[in-house]
Every structure is written in C-alpha cells, then in structure tokens.
C-alpha cells in the first residue's frame, strides 16, 4: 500500500465522502431503488467495464432501475470476485484511460448481489427462476461453452454435464455444477409454474454467440427431456451481440492508484476509453432501454461480429505471439514498432477485410487504423501474455475462418498462416532469449506436445485435426505456414516480420 493513512473503504456508507475528496463520479441514483432484472454469469473485468457500465449509465439517467444485476459464479475462482464485491456492497471503481493518460473514473452501482452457485445450487436455481429475472447473460469466455473441439458440437460426454443431466432428470437441483444445468433448471421451473422464460444473452467473443448459445442450450435441454427442449426452442430468445472494450487484468498497481485517491477498492477495473455494443433486438420479456446509453440495436449482428472478431480479435493474436517471442511484455511496446503496425494493417486489409460482409456507413479503413491506435494505448497497460492465453479457443474461432474463406476463394493466406506459425513457435514454451513461456490454455499439454516436434516435422503442430481440421491438407496454407515457422527458428520474430512485409508488398 502506498498510503499508510488510508482507512476509507469503498462501500455504500462512504460514497459521499469519496465523492467529496476525489473527482470520482458516484452513482447518481438511490441504489435502494434498484431491483434485480438480470443474472450474469462470468463477472470479470470485461463485464464490469462493459454491460454493467451501460446499465449504470441508464440508471444515472433515472431509467432501468428494475434491471439490477445479480452476479453468479460456478467456478472455484469466482469466490474471490464474490468476496471482493460483497465486502464493498457490490460497488467498484471503473477507470477508463485515454491514450494521453486522461482518467475518467466512476463508481459503478448496477451490480446489487452475487451468488456463488456451488455453495447452494438449489438457491442459485431459485434466484434464476424468480419472475423478476428477465435476462440471463453470459461472459464465460470461448472455452466456457462445452464445445467438443473435434466436432464443434455440444459435448454431451463431459462428466459435469452428464451429472447435471441425470440430476435434472431425477428432479434434483442440489448438486448442479454447470451454468447449463443451473439455467436449464430455472427454465424447467418457469415452465412448470406457467411463467414466461427469460432471455439468454451471450456477450462472448464468438461469431453468432446467440446462435451458438441457442444450439447448445437446446442440445442440453433436449437431452434432459424432449418436451423441455421443444418448450425452450419455442419460447426462449437468444440474441446475438458484438461487444468491444479492451480490458486488461486488474493489477496491484491499479489498486494502488485508487488508494492514492483516498480509498480502498478490492477489485477495481481499468479499460480503454473506447466501447461498443451491437445487440440483436430480440428479447423474450423486454429489455433495458439500451439505446439510450449508446448501444446499437440491430436486426442482424453478424456483419459487425465479423468486423470485430476478424479485425480486432484476430489482430490481437497477430501481435501477441510474435511480440512475446521478441521479448515484449506490454502490448503498447509491441505497437511502438512500426513493423508490427504495418504487419497488422497488411493482415487486416489483404486477408481479413475480403471475408467481411457489407457494412453500409462503416469506414473500414478508419476502423482498422483506429484499432492500431487502440492497441498502442500505453495508459491501458494491456499485457502480451493476456492476449496469448487460451489460444486453442481463440485461433479456431477468430482466425481460421479467415483462412478457410480465403482458401475457398483462391485468395492469399500468407499472413494468416504466419500468425498460426507464430502460435506454433510460441507453444514450444521458450522465447528467443531462452526464457520459459508459461502456456495458459485449457489444452496446454496438448498444444505443447504438438509443438515439441516442430523442428523435426515442420507440420506437426497443425496435424491436430481436432483443432485445425483439414488445413494440413491445404498446400497454399501449409507452404506459407512452414516458411514462417522455419524463419522463426532461424532468424527470429522481428526479421520474420520484415520478410513477410517485403513478401506481401512486392
């Protein structure tokens, strides 16, 4: 702690004092008037910088006070968030940082409770089933949807899913483990009571996130009971959405910055100043007036999803492995090198943009260059390891569709293949300075084993058809991939970037 005299803790009682002694904005509404309308799974930094922030803005306008958020966690790691938020009346500080270092700081009050489901699964189901809950939303990451990597379908063999299905068929909610089980149990209760069901709103970085959530919840519900599955299919809405705000993990330095203001926040959030939310206007029981807070309500989200996933998210993968290998820890340090800027712009212009759908009124050139500026925002202090995490979930969903569409259209895949090769080199677990790399990935052992033979079998990493499908059979892809991986082994990341730029700008 930098200030030993600080004793003031963030909570409802101290809000006025915090407002008096700092420039931090506090909720302009009476939180006692806020009632629950949403249960959210996956209360992390992004949710608190994005969806919860939008609701807080509406509440400050005197609207959506009946749409308060109850957080819900199912993972052991969620206990920390539950305890941190509960200790300060579910308030937290959000700091949006502009590229010039200007801080826009506010205390968010739209989260009003948190339920850690493993403590009492039956109570969690009761919380979800209460009539006031009209939306159940999700930010559970790409890896949270129980996807079978080999088939891309719902994995019915997952032991936790099997246990939840058997428990629901036996009418037992006391042992449920997954959000699929908990949410489906609440829908069963709604069906049995004759109440209208809630909307299930995915806010994860997955193309067609609402469509995928619908397909998977239906798969699970039908496996519990065909009648239940049909009822869910007929009555529950699953809107698609595109969400965007760079939100790095909270650090002790972030906590210290809040303490310098004169109070203690156990888990503040830091983010960039840019935010966007494009949402399909399809809800079972209404929704907050999101448009009043700047949300774009549309009938078709897919063009916006493709723009964001294939330009922003795939470009994050384009910079992180090369950057990590070259010895960079901070994203803005990678982007301070003009070669990385040129590489990402070339990928976006030459390979990603041709796969997008028409977006009338959107200046894609301006969007691409805005992304470069956002990545270079030093004030946000985003880290390269954060972007490298969970690659086996991210690359197949964000980058490989670009590869496949371009191969099908006989277009170039040089830079996309290079990004995959940079992941393969990174997965070897040693950077160019000889330092070990900690691989954070649910398939970490598998991808490291695949990468272990890179130098004796140049295609070993992409022979994993469960991750890459049949791309190992596509000669235009494998040649570009092998060329880059060989270059990374012989001359390193920076020289490889130089060679790639020279190749595509000839």
Q: Can you describe this structure?
A:
- The chain is of the alpha/beta class.
- It folds into two domains: 12-147 and 192-215 and 234-298, 3-Layer(aba) Sandwich (Rossmann fold); 302-504, N-(1-d-carboxylethyl)-l-norvaline Dehydrogenase, domain 2 (Orthogonal Bundle), CATH 1.10.1040.
- The chain has helices spanning 15-21, 45-49, 51-60, 78-86, 121-129, 159-169, 179-193, 209-224, 226-235, 252-260, 302-325, 331-335, 338-352, 364-375, 384-388, 391-398, 400-408, 414-426, 444-451, 465-468, 475-490, 493-504, and strands spanning 36-41, 68-73, 92-97, 103-108, 111-116, 135-138, 199-202, 241-244, 269-272, 276-280, 296-298.
- The chain has a five-stranded parallel beta sheet with strand order 5-2-1-6-7, sandwiched between helices.
- A hairpin with a 5-residue loop joins strand 3 and strand 4.
- The radius of gyration is 23 Å and the shape is globular.
- The model has no long low-confidence stretch (mean pLDDT 96).
- Keywords: NAD, Oxidoreductase.
- It catalyses: D-mannitol 1-phosphate + NAD(+) = beta-D-fructose 6-phosphate + NADH + H(+).
